[in-house]
Amino acid sequence: MRIRIVDAFADRPFHGNPAGVLLLDTAFPTDAWLQQVACEMNLSETAFAHPLPPGGDADWALRWFTPAAEVDMCGHATLATAHVLATNGLATGLIRFSARCGILTAETAEDGTITMDFPTSSLTPVPAPAAVDHALGGPPILSVHDTADHVGDLVVELADEKTVRELEPDHAALRAFARRGVIVTAPAEDPSLGYDFVSRGFFPAFGIDEDPVTGSAHTALAPFWAERLGRTELTGLQGGARRGLVRVTLAGDRTLLTGRAVTVVDGELLASPPAA
Is the N or the C terminus of the chain less surrounded, counting Cβ atoms within 10 Å? Predict the structure, then answer.
């Protein structure tokens, strides 16, 4: 089986967020085998997909695994999967995926960008948990919002871009926090540079200390910043040492996520799944 590593939300190699992509001919093998492959890849997510019979609501079944667990929704690995399908002639036009979070779509434009349609996350204001405040090192927190179940992150608003960039969280302390992850965010210091807000994402409970670019988190960041900036079309810059841009369009209960992707590794997986 061919297995690929794709840099998502990037226009050149070694930028954005790498994801593994494994396309299967038939139904998913055991969960244990999928988890072993994801652990071996040791990327923030590895996507597994197989084609579905024609005439249904979706064209491909899609699942995502971190090195430690399966997740409900992943943006950058969906982008990576759509990129592989489009560039290898396995799908054209609108691609429909059936996933744990519902039906997701991805469509490649003539300029090579891929736009995905994801459910918009809800945002519920909550007090700043003392554990998170401690784990982040005590920066001034302006607000904290809980997100919908399929996202499962806390969105923590900080004062400015500099604070977000210089943050050095205690990952061990965050690992004990019973959520998917923590997203810290702030407005862009200089929007003329091509982005409106910044963010970083920490997911140590799922085996990922920091995720460079988290597409699913932008389904919460889109409504968060649309309300504050008064626009429904925005661009976010996410990451610490490694970064990527996500264009977002808020369309009510759906959020469109747009980015680019590039394949950096195309190899062969020699470990076959167990026989049914």
Answer: C
